[in-house]
Structure formats: structure tokens, C-alpha cells
Amino acid sequence: QVNLVESGGGSVQPGGSLRLSCAASGSAFSIYTVGWYRRVPGKERELVAKITRGGIVVYGDSVKGRSTISRDNAKKMVDLQMNNLKPEDTAIYYCNVWAWWGQGTQVTVSS
Fold this sequence. Notes:
Layout: E1 3-7, E2 10-12, E3 18-25, E4 34-39, E5 46-51, E6 57-59, E7 67-72, E8 77-82, E9 91-97, E10 100-101, E11 105-109
Parallel strand pairs: 2-11
Antiparallel strand pairs: 1-3, 3-8, 4-5, 4-9, 5-6, 7-8, 9-10, 9-11
């Protein structure tokens, strides 16, 4: 069992930055790939970024070059730094570990 809690969402202006955090509980956290996904109402869920237990990262095309994912297995934390945010980044962002999902955190980018 893995419980996930996201934090760090909020409202920012275009060009701004946010750092999302995913705090996990459960002893199996360190062996799994952890991903950040986002969903806009009416659209399919989209991969933002994911990081393997060994630190290999994959970014979605829409955020590549603007985001950095990192993990601290000892702290059971995965962070997503997002820069140069755009209005189209507005979504609910979810942390995922295998079959488990967090409740999500809202990111709104608007002037």
C-alpha cells in the first residue's frame, strides 16, 4: 500500500514557477517509478514527468525543457519544478505510483 499526498499547487501568472511535491507513505515507495500526471476537464490524463527508482526521467512533450522531476527515496518525496508556466498548464496535477494515485493539486496559470 502506498499513500500519496500532493502539495504546492496554486495560482500563478504566465511565466511564473511552481514546485509541486508528492509525499508518500509505505515501504515499497523506493522500488517504484513515480509519475506526475495532469488532467483538464474534458481531456485525457497526460503524463507530465516520471522518474524511475534509479533516477531515469521522462518528460511529456508539453513540459519538456520547462520542468524538472526529482526524488528523495529516503524522504519518500518526489518534486516537480515547473518553470515558465503557460495558461495551458492549468490542470489538476496528480502523483502516481503504480496503481496508487494522490488526490491531486490544482495549478492555475492566468494573468
